[in-house]
Amino acid sequence: MTTFQPVVEPGIFDSEEVERNSSQDPAWYARHESTLYMIDEACRVLGVTKRHLALLLGLPHSQVYQVYVWTSPVRRIRIGQKYALRLSMLLAKAAQGMNFANISEIDWTTGDGAIQESRGKEDRRIPKAVRRGLHNNEAPA
Fold this sequence. Notes:
Layout: E1 15-18, E2 27-30, H1 32-46, H2 50-56, H3 66-70, H4 81-95, E3 103-106, E4 113-116, E5 123-125, H5 128-136
Helix pairs in contact: 1-4
C-alpha cells in the first residue's frame, strides 16, 4: 500500500472566493494563510528577519512595515503579485546556494544590491559576478 506524506500545509494553498459587485463573476485569490506561511518560510530559508526580507523584496525603507501588514492576522491583506514573484526568485536563488544574510537590499530595476560587510554603516555594491548571477539565474561561485 502506498502512503502519502504531506508536502505542504493542508488547505492553506486552496483559493478562496471573494465576492465582487453583482455585475462581475467572483474572483479567486490565494488564502491569507498562504501569505503568512510563505513570509515565515522565506525568512527561515533565507535566514533573515521580516524587515530584512522587505528590503530584499525592494520595498522602500519607509514601507518596510508592509511585510507586517501582509502577516497581520487582523488586516488579512495578501502579498501582491509583484512581491510574490520577487519572493519566488529569492527562494529559487537560495535553492541554488545564494546566501542573503549579508545582502542588505536589492534594487530590482538594475539587479544591483548592497552587501553589508559588518554591522557598521558602510555598505558596498555587490560584486559583478554575484550581480550577473542575479540576472542570469546562476548561483555565485
